[in-house]
Structure formats: C-alpha cells, structure tokens
Amino acid sequence: MMQRPEIKELSNIEIFKPQSTTLDNGIDMKSISIGDQPVSRLDIIFEGGRCDGRNQTVSEMLSAILREGTTSLNAQEIAEALDYHGAWLGCDASSHNATLSLYSLNRNFEKVVPILADIVMNPSFPEQELSNLKSLAANRLRINRQKVAFLAMETFAQRHFGNGSNLGKSVTEESIDSITASELSKFHKQWFAPQNMSVILSGKVERQMLNVVNECFGKAPVSGPPQQSATDSPSIKFKPDTVVVDKPDALQSAVRMGMPTVLRSDADYIPLRILITALGGYFGSRLMTNIREDKGYTYGISASLLGYRNNSFISISCQCDTSHTWQVVNEIKTEIEKLQNDTIPDDELRRLKSFMISDLARTLDTPFSIADYYASLHNNHISTDYFERQLATINSISASSLLDIAQRRLSSTEMLTAVAGNAKEL
Fold it and tell me: What is the helix (H) or strand (E) element at residue 426, kind and residue range?
C-alpha cells in the first residue's frame, strides 16, 4: 500500500542572486539566467512615473502611445513584426517608473530587441493614435465612475494624498483630453534618457543576448546625472474621517478604510506586514473568517500594507450589500481591537507563517517572477536583503511581538473611511 508523502513546512528558502553588469555607456543591467525553455524577458525601466508631469495621466498615456509608432515604423508594422517573431511587448507606468517588458523566443531575440530600442528612443507620437488612446481612456474612466469600488478608492486617495500630489488628484475627462503630443514628447525627453534607465534580462539568458542588449542600448550617450521622481508623500496632514460618496443607483456599497503608518525602512514595517496579513491578507484571515464566512456580509474582503518610496499606509477594502455597510465597518474595527487586546493563538500563528513563507516561495517560481521581485526593489528603493529579512522575521516573530505591534501601530479610531453607495440606503 502506498504511503502518503511526508508534509514538510518550508523554513529556509533562498532567492536567486542576479548577475550585475554595466553596458558601455554605464547603464546598469541585471541578468537572471534560470530555466530550460529558450525564452526570455527584457525589462527596460525608466525613472519617472505617475508622480511626475502635470498629472498622473501623462505618464500613463506616454506608456500607451510608445507602441503606436516610431520615426521608422508605424503601429501596424510594429505589431506585425513582433507577432511574426513570436514576441509580445508590455508597457506600464507606476508611481515612479515606466517599464517596457519584451517577451521573446531566444532564437528571435536579436531581431526584436532593435524594435524595442527604436520604440524607446524614437517614438513619433502620432496624432490619430493619440486621439484614439485618449478616447479609450475617457471611456474607461466613464465606466469606472459607475463602480462603487473605484469611487471609494478615488475618494480615499484624495483624502490621503491631497490635491498637491498627482496620486491624490482625480483624473477627469478634461485632463485626459488636454494631453498633447508635444507634452508627451517633452516628458519622454526628460525621463526616457539613458541616465534614468536600468535593464533586467531574465529567462534562459545566453551570452550573445547580453551583447545584443549592449549594442542596442549601450551606445546611447549619457548626458547628465540621473533624475529622481517626485515624492509620493501626501501633500496634506492626515485626518481620520468618514466620507460618503453618493451613487444613487448603486445596488451595493464599497468600503475603503486605512491609515498612514511606518516606512519600509522602519524596523516595524515587516512585523506590521505580518500583522496586516493576519488581519486580512489571506483567505484564512480574521476579516475573511468573520465578515465573509461567519456573517456572509461580503464575498471578499482584504487588508494590505502598501509601502511606497516616501509613505506607507494600511488599506482595507470590500464591497457589500448596502444594508450591511456599517456592520462591516464596525466588524473591521472590532477585529483590529481584538488584535490589540489578545495574542494570536499558536495554531493561527503557524498557519499565518506557513502562508507567508509559501507566498515568498512563489517569488521563486519562474525567472520572470524573480525579475519582478528585483524590479520592485529597484523601483521602491528597497535594500537587496529584503527577501532574507522578511523570511527571518516571519520565522522568528512571536505572538507577543505581534500584540505589541498591534498596540503601537494600529488604531480603530484613527482610520479614514470612504464609503461609496446609495446614500439614502446607508
């Protein structure tokens, strides 16, 4: 009779360390060579994102229009060339960075990387494509404004960051429509320069691929020191409050609660992240067990610790039937207070640690997930030992330490609460 394999808990995992090199012009490049499949991903990361420019839409629109044409190729020619060679290009704008990610078969790497270089260095900002992109963005905004989750998130951002920060300014159809090709060109010239660029190459990396990257990106002249993206610190003093956004035709309401907290550099940050995971960071969390499983108020509720470069805050969010809105808010506060008053039981702490270590292990699944991890370190200015520090803290933390963190870093009375829904029914 076959025996069931022994189940062992993870306790010691190591993340792959990338090889660092420098292109001819001084651009930093990290290579992560893992795996047997002859595929790769090339990430080109630039400083400058949603915190920069006139508003956050500028960097998002720039990332969208880069694939729409260069001085030598139009949008159709770019799409056909990438498709023919089995490649795919993603462009993304985050708070402080823009990232272009090219997925490619290794055998076609030297054919598609020059196309990426052309897109990065020589965008043409075609007017018709810009008009189409602005129309699509305006349509998405109109659709989002029908969603209570979006309205609650937007209101929370306004009250947390303030109008003096791009992250707190509401995006409007007017702000989208006002973007011009010349504004995008100016933003591109300022931020998409070699001195603001970093490279991560992951997959089954072969030596000639490093040479291809150097030929395409290592010859561009560097002019001046690297620039720094604008701060993401809130522009206003935080004020605990409860704000209701009326959506008269809403069939349910959305709740967004949160409060500012310590930066990633603080010794309490990782322990607090563990505590917030216990509160609402996985399916067996306190909030899910109480509000979803026991009371059936919502299909899902989550809590997370969001760490930016210059600020961090706790965020709790869910959607529920309008009639249960304030019960949900009260139950969230109750679960916070329980964490402040009672130590986490041993069996719950074991489950929590097992989940968080398994979640860390998922970072190691593929070369691309490892590249994502190092890109996050780069973008958020996090020290390279962050993985090891997380693992050590998860393994060693005690229930009494989590109780201490809860008492010092959580407060059910210091929350900003944004609720979007039918105000008459609330």
Answer: none
